[in-house]
């Protein structure tokens, strides 16, 4: 089981960055929920959220939630501000495991693939509390600039936010070797080919059609026994019908 801790930046009284009618705390929660939903399509994943609604959670508590759950990976999602544009990701600028760097490389590049056209600001390192205090590999993503009109227009699109989430999930799946769950749909039963009809069957088919057309029989029932009386009646009907023509 791979335990992924998902951290939607800010919340409650802490709106995070604001701009162009958007609040960072709402965008981060939206993206994180999309990430969680997409991750649920993979086998052997359990997801821990630091928040699932609009509430304030201290930075240390966010890290503590992941530490208590003994998560394998911590992902914090943010929106940038400060007159720039594009995407960047962060790991702790102190001692980190080689796997932390590997995860950043993989996830960063999958996100850039998913949001082609967005400026890549690079893979960075910083002394952020959630990165410093988490005991497992941790990554923080800054997904475009809320105070940039072009970036904000993208952030207003649910489709774009889904692409952002998709990129994170592709990266996590690649980093942890996750496999998609088998589809719930039942596989269609392989159809047995119809058995080839023998010449005898075909002759019986033709005879039945002929007799039916001439009012001698109405039903096939080819495997049923017949009495001599029935044979007499059938032959009699046939003879009469033929004579009438
Ligand atoms: Zn933030």
What does this structure look like?
With 245 residues, the chain is an alpha/beta fold. It has two domains: 2-176, Zn-dependent exopeptidases (Aminopeptidase), CATH 3.40.630.40; 199-244, no CATH class. 43% of the residues lie in helices and 18% in strands. It has helices at 24-39, 59-68, 98-114, 129-133, 149-155, 158-176, 199-213, 228-244; strands at 2-8, 18-19, 22-23, 45-49, 73-80, 87-92, 120-126, 138-145. The strands form two sheets. The protein has a six-stranded mixed β-sheet, with helices on both faces. A two-stranded antiparallel ribbon has the order 2-3. Helix 1 packs across helix 6. The radius of gyration is 35 Å and the shape is rod-shaped. The mean pLDDT is 93. Zinc ion (ZN) is lined by residues 9-10, 16, 24, 78. Zinc ion binds at residues 9-10, 16, 24, 78.
> N- to C-terminal separation?
83 Å
CATH architecture of the largest domain: 3-Layer(aba) Sandwich
Q: What low-confidence regions span 5 or more consecutive residues with pLDDT below 50? A: none
The total of beta strands comes to: 8
What's the gyration radius in Å? 35 Å
CATH topology of the largest domain: Aminopeptidase
Task: Estimate nothing, just give the exact number of structural domains.
Answer: 2
Number of helices: 8
């Amino acid at each position: 089981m791979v335990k992924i801790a998902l951290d939607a930046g800010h919340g409650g009284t802490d709106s995070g960055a604001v701009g162009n009618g958007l609040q960072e705390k709402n965008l981060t929660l939206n993206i994180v929920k999309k990430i969680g939903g997409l991750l649920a399509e993979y086998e052997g994943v359990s997801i821990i959220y630091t928040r699932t609604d609009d509430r304030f959670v201290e930075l240390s508590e966010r890290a503590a939630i992941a530490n208590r759950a003994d998560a394998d990976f911590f992902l914090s999602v943010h929106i940038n501000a400060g007159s720039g544009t594009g995407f960047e990701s962060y790991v702790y600028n102190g001692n980190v495991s080689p796997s932390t760097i590997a995860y950043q490389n993989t996830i960063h590049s999958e996100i850039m693939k998913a949001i082609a056209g967005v400026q890549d600001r690079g893979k960075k390192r910083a002394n952020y509390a959630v990165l410093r205090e988490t005991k497992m590999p941790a990554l923080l993503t800054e997904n475009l600039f809320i105070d940039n009109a072009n970036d904000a227009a993208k952030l207003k699109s649910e489709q774009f936010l889904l692409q952002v989430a998709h990129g994170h999930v592709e990266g996590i799946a690649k980093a942890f070797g996750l496999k998609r769950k088998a589809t719930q749909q039942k596989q269609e039963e392989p159809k047995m080919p119809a058995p080839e009809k023998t010449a005898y069957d075909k002759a019986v088919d033709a005879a039945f059609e002929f007799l039916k057309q001439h009012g001698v029989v109405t039903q096939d029932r080819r495997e049923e026994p017949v009495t001599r009386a029935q044979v007499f009646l059938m032959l009699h009907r046939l003879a009469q019908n033929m004579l009438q023509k």
